[in-house]
Amino acid sequence: MKRKPDNYSTGFQKQRYNAAFGELLRRERLAKNLSLSMLAKTLGVTKGYLSRLEHGGAKPSRILIEKIACALEVDPDPIFVLAGYVTPEVEEILYRHPVKAPILLREAFNDYGDAQQTETQLEIKPKLTSAAHVSKPSELVKKGLYQLVQGNCFSWADEKPPNYIHAIVTDPPYGLKEYTAKEKAKLRSGRGGVWRIPPTFDGCKRSPLPRFTVLTDADRESLRKFFYEWGVKMIRILVPGGHLFIATNPLLSHLVYLSLSSAGFEKRGEIIRLVQTLRGGDRPKNAHKEFENVTVMPRSCWEPWGLFRKPCEGRVQDNLRKWKTGGLRRLSRNQPFSDVIKSAPTRAAERAIAPHPSLKPQVFMRQIVRSALPLGEGIILDPFMGAGSTIAAACAVGYQSIGIELDPEFYQIAVRTVPKLATLAINGEYQWQPSSQQTLFNS
Ligand SMILES: C[S@@+](CC[C@H](N)C(=O)[O-])C[C@H]1O[C@@H](n2cnc3c(N)ncnc32)[C@H](O)[C@@H]1O
């Protein structure tokens, strides 16, 4: 039997939510030995209004629910549900699944109205977490939030004092070979090497991808050494409790992680960027017909980002007070930052703005960059900035940042494109032409 599409929000349902919420509120208030007037005063509402809430005669706002949870020292989530709201966590999930959300909601409320939308009818507009914001171009110009440096991050770090930056978010040349002059020349001439052009099976020209499986034992050893030496330099200039987010891949992450641990970093976890790349999933070379049911490597559907921290000075709370670091920034008061982030590959619009073969998408970068400064204060460093997606993300969420890039061509791309990426709205509607490079530190 079909029900009315808005059945779950009928007057009857509303009353039921209000009554259940009211009962809970009264129970918790009495359990805390608070009179109506005492709690009303704490919440900044009248005694009469609080009484109406307790008797199911009104629906509290979200803000009031947060205040109530705080005053009564209870978890706000069940209160949100009782009051007829989805919890911030559920809201976040629905934001991240814009196509499935209406279907899930209809299923949850057992409502299959006539106007069912199919996936193809829905427009997907990925949305940033509610707490992040996109700077307007004028703000960016005024603030001059970032500095771009062309040079080697190893020697750059040597010139800096200890405890100079507050977080590092970076995507290094983890195959090492791919950014040597020889391999970059092959990449730019479009002729193979460690870079390969994926098949153009649908007529679209794709960006080249580095082929990590061609690394030898000696390459692996130099990779281990590279990340150890790099880790030693980075940990010196990072403040105690400062976090490092480092992009890697499932074939090499163990080597990178061991080297960073040896350099003194604490491993704090791993962020899983759920993204389908074109790597893996293929049959044995030159024998794919003979072994048509064999996959040589799994089709990669995720990208690991190692999460490390320079040890704190004392307790996290002391470190937060002294250095403004030690933890990660929550999505909101009720939502911790979590370690699985669904992410599409970098959009064509962003790749057109910043043509770097390893460009990371803004929608993902803004989430991790934002989380890297727990109090929203300090400087983010990307020592391998490429076209500057980290720096653009830092600008977008209002953080100061420094980007270092060795290659002059990539550096010039970053100079041109950071302001454009930074002010790009996540749904791609916003366009802005910057007039010049803005710097915070040396202008
Ligand atoms: C994987 S890419 C980063 C791409 C970046 N995530 C983006 O979205 O554009 C790594 C970059 O590090 C640069 N690089 C390599 N060695 C470097 C070094 N020692 N110092 C600074 N940059 C370096 C490479 O030229 C390359 O552009």
Describe this structure in words.
Strands 1-10-9-2-5-7-6-8 form an eight-stranded mixed β-sheet, with helices on both faces. The termini are far apart. With 443 residues, it is α/β, with parallel strands linked by helices. The longest helix has 21 residues, at 11-31. The protein is elongated. It is 39% helix and 12% strand. It has helices at 11-31, 36-43, 47-54, 62-72, 76-82, 88-96, 101-108, 137-143, 153-158, 181-189, 217-237, 253-262, 316-323, 348-353, 362-372, 389-396, 408-422; strands at 146-150, 165-170, 195-196, 209-210, 238-247, 266-274, 302-309, 340-342, 379-382, 400-405. Helix 2 packs across helix 3 (47-54), helix 15 (362-372) crosses helix 16 and helix 16 runs parallel beside helix 17. It has 17 helices and ten strands. It has two domains: 8-121, lambda repressor-like DNA-binding domains (434 Repressor (Amino-terminal Domain)); 138-436, Rossmann fold. Mean pLDDT is 78; it is low at 1-10, 109-142, 197-207 and 428-443. Strand 9, helix 16 (389-396) and strand 10 form a beta-alpha-beta unit. The structure holds S-adenosylmethionine (SAM). S-adenosylmethionine binds next to helix 9 and strand 10.
**Which small molecules are bound?**
S-adenosylmethionine
- Our estimate of the beta-strand percent is 5-15%
CATH topology of the largest domain: Rossmann fold
Strand count, sense and closure of the main sheet? 8 strands, mixed
- Helix count equals 17
Structural class: alpha/beta
Strand order of the largest sheet: 1-10-9-2-5-7-6-8
List how many beta strands DSSP finds: 10
Poorly predicted regions: 1-10, 109-142, 197-207, 428-443
> How would you state the average pLDDT, rounded?
78
Span between termini: 68 Å
